[in-house]
Amino acid sequence: MNATIMTERLLLRPPQMGDAEPIARYLNDFGVAGNLARVPFPYHESDARAWLRTRVPGLPVEETNFSIELPGEGYAGQIGFHRGPQGPIVGYWLGRPFWGRGIMTEAGRASLDWFFGASKADIVYSGVFHFNAPSLAIQHKLGFTEIGRSRLLCLARGAEVEHIDTQLTRSVWKDRQR
Q1: Domain N-acetyltransferase, which positions (predicted)?
Q2: pLDDT (0 to 100) of residue 176
């Protein structure tokens, strides 16, 4: 699915090959990559291009990704959905220059609103590594609740790391939008 979303400050759009350079620049920062499960470190432009080649038109809702762009500032990060063993998972990251500005909360609200409108899923899952308090705070703002702990492989760290598992139900999302 090729959706585009405008918010007050952001453009959420389909990823494109022109995003490869900023993706590689921001993900080749261990402070970013070390918070993500599926991102190796170091991270190269060839890694970004390989991932971007998987973002083809016609993917199902549960495989949709959005590039986060700030008009006047350019590419800032990524938010998207993928299929997990329990159901759809939302994952996200921002380049370090964009941290602490409320950007991911805004992108999260818009993409979750889109997701619950476009899919039949009743639950979306997410989570954070135990040391990533800022990301957990974003999830709490969005209505996610903690459902347990697990261990998850972090490619950048080359190790299994304690993970706080979270979920957001459609009913909680709808109640929070009223």
Answers
A1: 10-171
A2: 86
Query: What are the structure tokens assigned to 48, written together?
Result: 């970004």
Q: Say how many C-beta atoms besides its own lie within 10 A of residue 83's C-beta.
A: 11
CA distance 8 to 1: 23
The residues near 156 (Cβ < 8 Å, ≥ 6 apart) are 30, 33, 34, 36, 39, 40, 41, 43
How far from 157 is each of 41, 62, 93, 139, CA to CA, in Å? 8, 27, 16, 23
Identify the pLDDT of residue 59: 87
Q: Which residue's structure tokens are 């709490």? A: 140
Architecture of domain 5-177: 3-Layer(aba) Sandwich (3.40)
Average pLDDT along the chain, 178 residues, taken 10 residues at a time: 89 97 98 97 98 90 96 96 95 97 97 96 98 97 97 97 98 90
Assigned token pair, 144 = 């996610």
Report DSSP letters for 14-59, one per residue: ---GGGHHHHHHHHTSHHHHTT-SS--SS--HHHHHHHHHT--TT-
